[in-house]
Amino acid sequence: MINVLWGFLLWISATVFFRLFGQMFLIPGNVLLLLATFSLTIPLITLVTYPYYYARRIPISKRLISSVQIALPGMILDIFSIIYFKKVFPNLHIDSLPILASWLLWAYSLILISGFPIKIKSN
Questions:
Q1: Going by C-beta distance under 8 Å and a sequence separation of 6 or more, which residues neighbour residue 75?
Q2: Contact yes or no for 11/77 (Cβ under 8 A)
Q3: What is the pLDDT, as a whole number, of residue 117?
Q4: What is the C-alpha to C-alpha distance for residues 41 and 45, in angstroms, rounded to an integer?
Q5: pTM of the entire predicted model
Q6: Taking a C-beta distance cutoff of 8 angstroms, is the pair 37, 96 a contact?
Q7: Among 71, 51, 54, 55, which Cα is nearest to 9's?
Q8: At what angle do helices 97-114 and 2-25 cross, to 10 degrees?
Q9: DSSP secondary structure string, 43-84?
Q10: Which whole number is the average pLDDT over 98-112?
């Protein structure tokens, strides 16, 4: 249940962020800014998942299910934020909708990937 709550908090944080500042980051045609936005999502998701796993002492064997529980609330709620795009994100131009949807898929994919074990080969 805590994982689901963490996922909800991440979803509400991202939604509020893009509601207030999305027009500065999701600019159609500004390829460099979009690349930077998508690239910076990697360390951001790393910062909100791996320390969470360590703080909650989630064993590696349970991280995949935890990542699903973290991602799922936002994935479900974003169905509605995309359907009601103009009401939820009034500062974003309608041309930003595909970019926002792509970013959401990217972010949720990264959350899910964080649940897979990382094998480090030792000598």
A1: 108
A2: yes
A3: 86
A4: 6
A5: 0.91
A6: no
A7: 71
A8: 140
A9: HHHHHHHHHHHHHTT--GGGHHHHHHHHHHHHHHHHHHHHHT
A10: 97
* Domain chopping of the chain, boundaries: 2-114
Residue 115 in tokens:
């649940």
Report the distance separating Cα 93 and Cα 49, nearest Å: 30
Structure tokens at 27: 């600019």
> How far apart, in whole angstroms, are the C-alpha atoms of residue 87 and residue 36?
26
Residue 32 CA neighbour count, 13 Å, CB half: 0
Which DSSP letter does residue 95 get? G
Question: Residue 68: how many CB atoms within 10 A of its CB?
Answer: 16
Q: Which amino acid is at 3?
A: N
